[in-house]
Amino acid sequence: MLDRAFYRSADYKSLIESAERTLVVGRRGTGKSALVYRLTTEWNKLERTSIVQLAPEEDQIASLRERLSRFGDGFTHARAASKIAWRYALLMEVTENLAVFGKAASALTPLLREHLARWRRPYAGVSAKLRNTLQALSDQQLSAADRLGDLAQKLQLSRLTSDVKELMSGVNRKVIFLLDRLDEGFEPDALGTAIIAGLTQAAIDTRSHLPECKVYVFLRDNIHRAIAQLDPDYSSNIEGQVLRLHWDEYNLFNLVCDRLRAAFNLDIEENRKLWNRCTAKGLQGQDGFRKCLQLTLYRPRDVISLLNNAFLCARSQERGEIVDDDLEAAAKEISENRYNDLQKEYEKILPGVAELTRAFRGTEPEQSLEQARSCMASVLSVDTHPAEAQRAFRILDTPEAATRALYSVGFLGLREETTGRFIFCHDGKNPDRALGEIDRVLIHPCYWMALDLARKAIGADEAQEIYDEYDIEVNSDAPKVRAANLGRHMSELNQIPEGKECAQRFEEWCLKAIRIVFSAGLRNIALHPNAAAVQQRDIVASNSGDSPPWRRVLNDYDSRQVLFEVKNYQNPTQGDFRQIATYMTAPYGRIAFLVTRDADLNPRKGLELDWIRELYYTQQNRLLVVKLTGKFLSNLLSKLRNPQKHDPAEHAINGLLDTYERNYLGLPSTRKQKR
Asked: What range defines the domain where residue 294 resides?
């Protein structure tokens, strides 16, 4: 289709007619790759011109990061190393492409031949070649600063630049570089940004040193903004080299009409007549096209996708023209597909993402932080979610943490106070600042129709204020936040002194820990649920037998309300065990859990074990008290930091029950042992 109906926008003409700009910047879906394809096709027609496309692979960029980090962790040092390295890479690629021509091959200087022999690697991309070059030159005995100082000298950049310039002039050939897909493997930290900033500087320098060589770098807007923020030389060296891709209603209309003309073989020259030929009812005319744009973010990819789906809907009803219903159905389907993708991609690393996002159904797309928190609170306050979601919510714990999690997966955008723009996460990170009451959030427009929000259309000005440079991919800070929250709760245990004075703190700690580790099988876990009663139980949980070990507790011990008695000291007394026995009325069944501060999970022989056996064998209903400890709960929290295939808490409880029933409850034999 690009060969038959490529729209020659003003940006495209600018690149074809002038070589003043090195950096081409565009948001997601603005046609950067289409530009690269078309420019390659156009420039391949030029005589005595070689076109070189470079698109680093993700794994190559990852390994290149490690090599460049050896020259310093700071942005300035990493950028300098990247600039030198990429200048060398471009010089070698120029030489390699010219060396295939007989005249150029014979004109290679000994220095160029030497470096080219080391550079050439069969089936290796430019990033892999560059990585190998840096590896060979990296002296581990030198400091990072010394390695950086020696890099340009070891690569002999000055002499190579002079030789390549003379070579190009002698053979009368031009080389044009097109560098695309630089977001592959990009990490938005100082090192990742420095690598791209160095490449950009290298491209600019190469153009200035080699008049017969042109380099065009195609960047996503988020990477460009990161460079502008971190690079102190941006305004003087880079800003004037930027061409920003821009699409307005006029350009998008011409693009769509060119596509329609090619797709349906229509010989209608005037675009308005062509559009009216393919539409009906409310979609006729410029106002009708504007309705289409309001269901997109005013970007070519979004508009083309929407209209393709709309024409499929029309064709299914044997119509050649699209109408409002087709457009609505297409937009709804695209929105639902994006929403389903979000859930499928992130359900593993943020369990419960479906429940969290559904809380916004029917609300306003833009709302205050307080309103968003209220939606999150309505989810977190319910404990009837699936097991994994329930545990994730207990770990998140607060509505603000849940809001941050939805930002990290690109569902919610945060408004910048200074610019008023809404920034959506493109790298899986949490907000880098505290959320204040004045903050406002925006649900990403691609989910509006799937969630039946109060608004379904967006204006051109609003679309320009949305920065969402991300594709749905499995990348989020949620696992790190999960591990940090669990680690924080684990560390709180060591800060609680033993004894009655801090008994309440230990009870509250146990409540939160039990809510997290036993969330798969227990619900409605509460502290002192019967505080006004004569018998005040510490922690009680409702047991519906939803998981195997708790089903065992329900069936074997008739415990529909599970009791956790909490003691903030190491050695429980006989009175503690007898007190538990008085609590074991009908709904609590014949089992209870006693949580202490003991380091040993096993009941002590001679005291605790005797009291456990006494309750089991002397009580008519055979009551079982299972000893737990704060350390035991903390260890389970630790295991949850890296989710496993099996549930460690469920596995542990089942093992404890086996141990008690097989070992501890057995009466010792009265038979004398043989000597």
From this structure: 249-339
Lowest mean pLDDT, pick from 456-465, 481-490, 518-527:
456-465
Query: Which strand (E) or helix (H) includes residue 526?
Result: strand 522-527
Structural domain total, the chain: 4
Three-state DSSP class for 308? helix
Phi, psi (rounded to 5 degrees) for 442: -135, 130
User: Which residue has 């669990």 as its token pair?
Assistant: 486
Q: Are strands 539-543 and 561-566 parallel, antiparallel or unpaired?
A: antiparallel
**Per-residue pLDDT at 668 exceeds 70:** no
Same domain? For 99 and 169 the reply is yes
For residue 259, is it within any domain? yes
Note whether residue 1 is domain-resident. Answer: no
Query: Of 244, 274, 295, at which residue does a domain stop?
Result: 244
413, 424 contact by CB (below 8 A):
yes
Question: What's residue 64's pLDDT?
Answer: 80
Nearest to 619 by CA among 669, 577, 670, 661: 577
Q: Are residues 643 and 616 in the same domain?
A: yes
**Residue 122 in this model has a pLDDT that exceeds 70:** no
In 3-state terms, what secondary structure has residue 349?
coil
The mean pLDDT value of the chain amounts to 86
- Name the nearest CA neighbour of 561 among 588, 594, 525: 588
CA distance readout (Å), 463 to 52, 249, 296:
35, 12, 8
> Token digits for 446?
């691609």
- Taking only the tens place, the pLDDT of each residue in 341-399 is 888 888 877 889 999 999 999 999 999 989 999 999 999 988 888 888 888 888 888 89
